[in-house]
């Protein structure tokens, strides 16, 4: 593959770090000029070179069945937290997006969530889910925050839509058939019911038309999460997301080839 032993050792060491990489003080430019490297010890810039050399794609041998099994487990854990637990009432976006683990408490069986309760816990458990993905720990703390802020809301909506679809519902809804719109929206939706139906039913209709499977959702979800078009993210962060998006795209294609065989390309 053309990688030196030192580079391989560095790459393996970085990808097993438990803490985030430290942001470059030189604007991710330490290794821009190979004839005049500004700082040999800058881990983030050296890691960027590994990403450019596609070391993740070449060295991380991902097994489709293992990936799907792991994502399924994570999604089930997220759903359990969403339905059966509560997040701290005073938690802020800064709190939930930092590197510490969010502490959830068991919800009383007789507690009935309001729209605002469901919306709040949905946001918190979704961010918690994304934070647990392996590649997120490879982002700097500043990149991690802008990344989470950029992607979590779309993930909330998509995952809830798929869950409603898999539950054979005709529109997006929270558990206990709680509406996804607050009561304050009734003034608008009563005058424009088509708008409400379009928002709540359109995605479900598309999912039903595609007959999407749970496995496809799990992989598509990560592909959407790994969108590298994140405002204010470093070049290294965007490279990392791009690498993982391509990897999961390849896994989705492989799943389609196994599942649909000759119809995989049109899938």
Automatic annotation (TrEMBL):
Keywords: DNA-binding, Metal-binding, Nucleus, Receptor, Transcription, Transcription regulation, Zinc, Zinc-finger. The keyword NAD does not apply. Belongs to the nuclear hormone receptor family. It comes from the Eukaryota. SMART domains: HOLI. Residues 1-62 form the Nuclear receptor domain. PROSITE patterns: NR_LBD (PS51843), NUCLEAR_REC_DBD_2 (PS51030). GO terms for molecular function: DNA-binding transcription factor activity; sequence-specific DNA binding; zinc ion binding. The keyword Oxidoreductase does not apply. This is Uncharacterized protein. Residues 63-267 form the NR LBD domain. InterPro entries: NHR-like_dom_sf, Nucl_hrmn_rcpt_lig-bd, Znf_hrmn_rcpt, Znf_NHR/GATA. It holds the Pfam family zf-C4. It comes from Caenorhabditis briggsae.
């Amino acid at each position: 593959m053309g990688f030196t032993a030192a580079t391989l050792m560095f790459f393996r060491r970085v990808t097993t770090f438990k803490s985030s990489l430290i942001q470059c003080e030189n604007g991710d430019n330490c290794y821009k000029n190979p004839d005049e490297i500004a700082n040999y010890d800058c881990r983030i810039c050296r890691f960027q070179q590994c990403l450019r050399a596609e070391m993740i794609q070449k060295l991380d041998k991902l097994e489709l069945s293992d990936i799907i099994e792991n994502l399924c487990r994570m999604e089930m854990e997220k759903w359990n937290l969403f339905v059966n637990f509560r997040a701290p009432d005073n938690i802020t976006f800064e709190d939930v997006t930092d590197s510490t683990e969010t502490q959830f408490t068991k919800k009383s069986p007789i507690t009935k969530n309001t729209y605002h309760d469901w919306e709040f816990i949905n946001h918190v458990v979704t961010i918690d889910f994304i934070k647990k993905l392996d590649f997120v720990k490879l982002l700097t703390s500043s990149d991690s925050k802008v990344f989470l802020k950029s992607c979590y809301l779309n993930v909330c909506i998509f995952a809830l839509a798929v869950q409603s679809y898999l539950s054979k519902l005709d529109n997006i809804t929270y558990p206990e058939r709680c509406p996804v719109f607050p009561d304050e929206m009734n003034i608008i939706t009563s005058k424009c019911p088509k708008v409400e139906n379009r928002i709540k039913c359109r995605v479900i209709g598309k999912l039903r038309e595609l007959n999407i499977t749970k496995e496809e959702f799990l992989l598509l979800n990560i592909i959407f999460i790994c969108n590298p078009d994140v405002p204010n993210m470093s070049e290294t962060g965007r490279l990392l997301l791009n690498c993982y998006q391509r990897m999961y795209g390849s896994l989705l294609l492989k799943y389609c080839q196994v599942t649909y065989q000759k119809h995989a390309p049109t899938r």
